[in-house]
Design goal:
Low-confidence stretches of chain A: none
CATH class of the largest domain in chain A: Alpha Beta
CATH topology of the largest domain in chain A: TIM Barrel
Structural class of chain A: alpha/beta
CATH superfamily of the largest domain in chain A: Aldolase class I
Shape of chain A: elongated
Oligomer: homotetramer
Radius of gyration of chain A: 23 Å
Number of helices of chain A: 11
Helix content of chain A: 25-40%
Mean pLDDT of chain A: 93
Chain lengths: ~350, ~350, ~350, ~350
Amino acid sequence: MIIVLRPRSTPEQIDHIVKRIEELGFKAHLSQGELRTIIGVIGDESKLQMEPLAAIAGVEQVLPILKPFKLASREFHAADSVVQVGKIKVGGGYLGMIAGPCAIESYEVLDEIAGKVRAAGANILRGGAFKPRTSPYSFQGLGEKGLKILREVGDKHDMPVVTEVMDPRQVELVDRYADMFQIGARNMQNFDLLKEIGQTRRPVLLKRGMSATVKDMLMSAEYILASGNPDVVLCERGVRSFEDSTRNMLDMSSVPNVKASSHLPIIVDPSHATGRPDLIPSMSRASVAAGADGVHVEVHSCPEKSLSDGAQALLPAQYTALMSDLRRLAEVVGKTIG
Amino acid sequence: MIIVLRPRSTPEQIDHIVKRIEELGFKAHLSQGELRTIIGVIGDESKLQMEPLAAIAGVEQVLPILKPFKLASREFHAADSVVQVGKIKVGGGYLGMIAGPCAIESYEVLDEIAGKVRAAGANILRGGAFKPRTSPYSFQGLGEKGLKILREVGDKHDMPVVTEVMDPRQVELVDRYADMFQIGARNMQNFDLLKEIGQTRRPVLLKRGMSATVKDMLMSAEYILASGNPDVVLCERGVRSFEDSTRNMLDMSSVPNVKASSHLPIIVDPSHATGRPDLIPSMSRASVAAGADGVHVEVHSCPEKSLSDGAQALLPAQYTALMSDLRRLAEVVGKTIG
Amino acid sequence: MIIVLRPRSTPEQIDHIVKRIEELGFKAHLSQGELRTIIGVIGDESKLQMEPLAAIAGVEQVLPILKPFKLASREFHAADSVVQVGKIKVGGGYLGMIAGPCAIESYEVLDEIAGKVRAAGANILRGGAFKPRTSPYSFQGLGEKGLKILREVGDKHDMPVVTEVMDPRQVELVDRYADMFQIGARNMQNFDLLKEIGQTRRPVLLKRGMSATVKDMLMSAEYILASGNPDVVLCERGVRSFEDSTRNMLDMSSVPNVKASSHLPIIVDPSHATGRPDLIPSMSRASVAAGADGVHVEVHSCPEKSLSDGAQALLPAQYTALMSDLRRLAEVVGKTIG
Amino acid sequence: MIIVLRPRSTPEQIDHIVKRIEELGFKAHLSQGELRTIIGVIGDESKLQMEPLAAIAGVEQVLPILKPFKLASREFHAADSVVQVGKIKVGGGYLGMIAGPCAIESYEVLDEIAGKVRAAGANILRGGAFKPRTSPYSFQGLGEKGLKILREVGDKHDMPVVTEVMDPRQVELVDRYADMFQIGARNMQNFDLLKEIGQTRRPVLLKRGMSATVKDMLMSAEYILASGNPDVVLCERGVRSFEDSTRNMLDMSSVPNVKASSHLPIIVDPSHATGRPDLIPSMSRASVAAGADGVHVEVHSCPEKSLSDGAQALLPAQYTALMSDLRRLAEVVGKTIG
């Protein structure tokens, strides 16, 4: 950590800062520049970074040097992590192809969709039983009834299933039915939920918050890892921006950006990122080429009658065509569809 | 609701759309333009807005006409709402001046700060017992021990108290100690928490999410109102932006913007919005002049030793000077410090 | 265009609006909803869209139906445009692979870089002679001397050359040396420059502004097209965002988004978009897979001694490896490197 | 400047960096931390900051310590600057109240508006003769004819006049008619225009770019100052954001933020910042309370017939009421309306 002092800081201020650093168990290393004095703080920065050093008189800025996450970092774990979801591998060369409707609506609808996406090559089935909806008047999901349908349909088509959990009180229930928890964008910093999930033994699909930085996302993963659960798959699903012709802005560079500093797998969800079915195929192809560990796509057999987010779903036939492209690209970039 | 069709949409497509609208219990009203056909949908739009009409073949865009919130709207309740927090009024001409440390650290520290902010004119005491921290390794708050301290100190200085609740499972506990719940920015769309709080009879300070639009914030308030709790005070605390010299970007225009479409009170938190003590006084003055119903300021007697966010707190003496300015401005804009 | 009236708008207000629409040569088509009256305006919307109809008493909002650009639209020109840069084609299945240093520094340095990128497969050489620099104290480019070097080196290696023009007064000079003009992000809405370039017969590489929407970018292209120059290639180079670990946020979805509504070619510049050499290869691969018509990469043989933006350049050897990947991907997506 | 090295950087890499720093005429000061080595670079940082040190092997990040602007900084000029516009003072306790229509449309319309805003207390008249319009098909301004009208009307009502200049080739012409140049948001980084204006002796109203940081804005001011013109007034006019209910997001904190690091006056333009007449009065009051050196408001006597941006203009009567509020607030904050 580096502390930059204000111009004309007094010797008393400098002494006070050095004393404070030493009280906290660190060593201070002064460096007198032409216009500024800087103090290097030597010791375990992770213990220091939460201290309010910037509040001390005479301090202009405090510059952290190290990344604030540990268990999620490449320095801690150099090789790519592979997360096992049921019998499917995600990461380390294996692609998780997650597909399904936004919400679970009925056995029949889910069964039809699952059969088609499985045939197209999807290897994990998704569907929401608890839906985070902006409006209290919108369909909120089927709850446990939906979870049962998901489990049955997943078993029938031999696909592991992933579904969202929104409330720490639902964790136990969802744990009984799902192969993988999903934490949605709106809950990426719901820290009590992260801790609760961190105490289970199920893999987690952690979606990026609507305006979370890559570092924020890794810090949320760190919560889960630090609670004891090592199986986190990150998911880029776009962030809020000024662009008004897409639902969110897909930050494709988060894929190599995460990989540069973390060993965790990361997949891309172009459905929520763009909100436009006409852009999903192009963005799915780009995701695989960018090095993502999978693609998450909403598919519905009759989008105009779906109970949630139908307007952004692909039709099964469109998904089938897309998967054929993705298989060719996977080969070029040396990946296997788990 | 207005449905705009694609150029060259076929008569069959138009028929299908009209039929779908009528099936849903609405009337369709066609209007043939030079290059586009549009369909006005007549009926209770709030029931329609969640339907995936945009997914129907031939539809280019769907334009909602009405606001999606009701109980929070000025059309539903024309006069400014006044929310009672203990014996203090917020809204309708009364200013809620909330002050206190970020986190509750000890009885002594809180007591000292409370005495000073009370003397300066603050009328509601704040302090966090459950802290949402980006890092799992940071101080997470004193929990129930903190709540007890807050209650005692509030009673001693005759100030109602507000404190954050992060988890639906904490609601009952916090309800026993606090006069007002705070929902933090990261939980603005934690819908289960909103519903849980909506079932209590305590006023709520609902902070704007990091990248929530004004409409999103009002929709979250709608969740609480729709669950039966009418006492919501909104709080502008800045949003994420590209500007890197302040912690967030204070969207001051949200104050008149909220008032244009809602009856709910709105206060401003310049501490989190700017993250810079040197900008807090100016932004507090601007908030009162903009018509805010109060100002929320973090105050700490020794910021450099605070356990959370010390670098953005005002010193008690700075707060006292600020309150003297705010009283003069309140007079000019015709407001009373409750 | 659709005009939505406020609730409780009076018959006199409605009459006034209808009269105003008719005065402007349009027809008004009323539609009475349950809570709102809407007026469809029938006629050539492009002439209407600049009228301040929203300022009329009783109007709540004005919703345009048509896109405001014409010559740039797919409706005007259905097939993909192919832009000829020297003997190289960009668009319609042909990839423009633009490479070179940020600034032209000397004949020797440019010659060395050009030889290497040409051998790797680049087909257009870039280099700046007039540099837009945030600081007045930074290197501002070699001016005409740089243009001469660029021309000579381009000719030697048989590559057409592209270079930035910042000022309408430079257009004539640059026109004498370059095969393609570049308009930088900061000048995307320098309308006098757009008009001046629109009067030449040279192709233009138009970079997206730092916070321009896709529609804004197409409107700027429209300026050039409307001035008589049809040869515009768009360039996605990232936009400003809150993410602080990359220089900008690469909006990869702008590639299919542009193609959905325009016939103009679009390429991607991952160098400026990310500012990080370690992310450039991944983002270049993703661009080709996304359907971009080319990739623009900064390459420098000694980044640590470059006079501008060295920290984001690839080394020639890295570029050579990247081009080998891109050739394989181009084949998969059915594109030819022109 | 501080250079942070990667973990496991080699002694050879460190030697190379130190040598490079010394070659550039600086001194290197090593500091060995537990996990990272950092190098403090001692010497005139402004000369160093443009060097591509981050491109050297072994370097993880380069952290500048000093602000990159000089002439615009408070360290260079401690007291608030006062800019003289005709006989009106702006800054240092004097408020510039700029009002007028978006575009100059005719002598009659401008004369009527000027008479009313002058009577209300405005002290500088605005009006555009060259208009930057997103669409090439929109009204582009009256050009020199407009400038003549502006001059005549300004003289008649004894008000100095400000008008936009968009092209370096217009500077001489506009200089003959105006008392103050305006540089619009889209041209904030049109560096050739900044340099050209920097060579005149007229004050400049420099508007913040659509996604410019406060530092970017001060760097653009630095261009003008470094070219020899000291009379720059900054203008906050909102920035691009995800919020879709206002045209831009007014960053009110830029007012004290600029004042913390610069001596230049800064005014606020709530018309462009919000795009909503109903929010302008509240935001104008907030601006004065925040410490702005003036307010820029668009006023039109018949917004529905204005040729540009009518929907965001106040009516003269609304402006008169607003000015009465602003005079009371000016008194409270100790300012004089020049």
